[in-house]
TrEMBL record:
<dbReference type="Pfam" id="PF02786">
    <property type="entry name" value="CPSase_L_D2"/>
</dbReference>
<feature type="domain" description="Biotin carboxylation">
    <location>
        <begin position="2"/>
        <end position="446"/>
    </location>
</feature>
<dbReference type="InterPro" id="IPR011054">
    <property type="entry name" value="Rudment_hybrid_motif"/>
</dbReference>
<dbReference type="InterPro" id="IPR011761">
    <property type="entry name" value="ATP-grasp"/>
</dbReference>
<dbReference type="InterPro" id="IPR005481">
    <property type="entry name" value="BC-like_N"/>
</dbReference>
<dbReference type="InterPro" id="IPR001882">
    <property type="entry name" value="Biotin_BS"/>
</dbReference>
<dbReference type="InterPro" id="IPR050856">
    <property type="entry name" value="Biotin_carboxylase_complex"/>
</dbReference>
<dbReference type="InterPro" id="IPR011053">
    <property type="entry name" value="Single_hybrid_motif"/>
</dbReference>
<dbReference type="Pfam" id="PF02785">
    <property type="entry name" value="Biotin_carb_C"/>
</dbReference>
<dbReference type="InterPro" id="IPR016185">
    <property type="entry name" value="PreATP-grasp_dom_sf"/>
</dbReference>
<dbReference type="InterPro" id="IPR000089">
    <property type="entry name" value="Biotin_lipoyl"/>
</dbReference>
<feature type="domain" description="ATP-grasp">
    <location>
        <begin position="121"/>
        <end position="319"/>
    </location>
</feature>
<feature type="domain" description="Lipoyl-binding">
    <location>
        <begin position="588"/>
        <end position="663"/>
    </location>
</feature>
<keyword id="KW-0067">ATP-binding</keyword>
<dbReference type="GO" id="GO:0046872">
    <property type="term" value="F:metal ion binding"/>
</dbReference>
<dbReference type="GO" id="GO:0016874">
    <property type="term" value="F:ligase activity"/>
</dbReference>
<keyword id="KW-0092">Biotin</keyword>
Amino acid sequence: MSFTRVLIANRGEIARRIQRGCHKLGLETVAVFSEADRDAPFVAEADHAVCIGPAAASESYLNVPAILGAARATGAGAVHPGYGFLSENADFAAAVEAAGLVFIGPEPDAIAQMGSKIAAKAAAEAAGVPVLPGYRGADQSDSRLLQEAGALGVPFLVKASAGGGGRGMRLVTDMADAPKAIASARAEAQGAFGDPAVFLERYALRSRHVEVQVLGDTHGNLVHLGDRDCSLQRNHQKLIEEAPAPNLPDDLREHMRAAAVRLAQAIGYRSAGTVEYLYDPERRAYYFLEMNTRLQVEHPVTEAITGIDLVEWQLRIARGERLTFQQPDVHFEGHAIEVRVAAENPAENYRPETGRITLWVPPSGVRLDTGVGEGSTVGHHYDSMLAKLIIHAPDRAQAIRKSVAAIDGFAVGGLGLNLAFQRALLIHPDFAAIRHHTAGLGEMFVNGWAHPAPDAQSRALATLALHLHLVPTAGNTPWQGLGAWRLTAPAGRPGAAFYWALGDEDPTSAAGDKRHLTIRLPDGTPVTVEAPGLTADRLTGRVGGVPFTRAAHLRRTKKHWQVFLSTPDGMAGFAIETLEDRHLQRASGKVGGADLLVAPMPGAVVELRVAPGDRVAAGDTLVVLEAMKLLQSLVAPFAGIVAEIYCAAGDTVAGQAPLVKLDPEETQ
């Protein structure tokens, strides 16, 4: 079972995670990628990379012949499936082994047995592991299922035997809905997994999701690595995970761990796997749900509290090595939390977000497993999870605080993420008091969750950050600053600069000097900042004599500025227009349909030859600009009337700054 090169049949953050594990052991890696992932970080970081098909997963990451062909072409000796895609596909594992390669995971038979929820529950019962009451028989006729449903009573679940992730699952609270629920669960199971078989299971209200990590070698050694809680879920999809599972009675915890080991031993399990339970705190009872025969998304929290590298041990076990530790050698230290970072908008029914990441500034001092970075493009082809924040602390309370601080220090631009929602979950009283459960989001946010609106001071400070970024500072040449002041002087407003929050008609003003700056919001609210400063992505100053320091990151889009600022409710993004932006929009027809003469490059206005109301012909010189020691005559592009002037002789202007607004002359 010796191998030196591993093909990773996956993508994104888990591909990079497995690459790190391989390199730790001196193994080369082969990345397989779709055309959509050609420029992804996991491809660039691999020792070898092979394109296996178009963006559609069915033609690439689920394309078994293409994956095996890539393994042969690159001389890979083993295949690691990661999680998702083909990771729990027994036929794929068998095909890998039939090709003479090592499958880094359990035996295909174990995958198949645990892949059928009906067979898995039968194996659990045989191993003495508690299961929920229900019907798991071979007779799949409507009459038999409805008969068993009547005997079981409501509430109950109809669940697909194959697959997972909440697909093919229906909750029945009224027996009259049972026929429809069975039919729809069957149809979804057939479409998603190619298997319409379903089973019935009593529904446990206010239950928690607790799971136990197991690890076994090929020599019969098998241990557990503790437990995790994954109860914060949306539609059976996990949001936040933690280890160890909090507030479990000690005796019950030991029973759950021992039962997981018993089941894994009964099926001769090797590699990393997870036994999942439903835990009923009211009855102090637990029930087997399923066994995941792969690496879990949440494996890092177990690594954090045990110090055991699960990917490393998957690789070592696949090479035939024995575990170098026994159960008494496994120790648990502190508490760990994992936050899934996804490109979605929870305030709008978890609408997926796509686009190019223009800013990616992760927090320091915590583990971040990520598949993207600044410049990455997020498309619609794959799962919305982009990264995972993993936080380790001495206890749960500190882990929560540290998790919130990590989110507050995470700045991302270009597309929306779920970080504000995850922050709201972490600080919710139900989570702190461990009252949360698998169906508890509706109780935590009775009226739904809305993205918190930034407070007035934060809105003012975002404008301040942009203002300090744009105005010239001591030591700058005229070519290095936009000179926000000069834009307002011709309008009779010396000492004030104006900015617009995207969508606002009324501006926010900035007035004062380097000792005191007053930002006045559109509603007239003033915020005066003493000793304002912006250096190294930090905005500093004093408001009302109280000093502040806020993280501030600025990025330019084609049409406006983006300011990312830490606020009392976490990192917030602000889209802000300058006066130039407003007039450039007018020039392009976005605002009012007027036409502008703009500076072709930074320079100084030497001469202004027109005044408002002047009639000019096409080709007439309107402004003379000095740039790079050369004089340039800027002429009217068409005949018209001078409507507005935005500069004066002696002004320093930026490239693309508006100079003169020209209305076309109407033809009779």
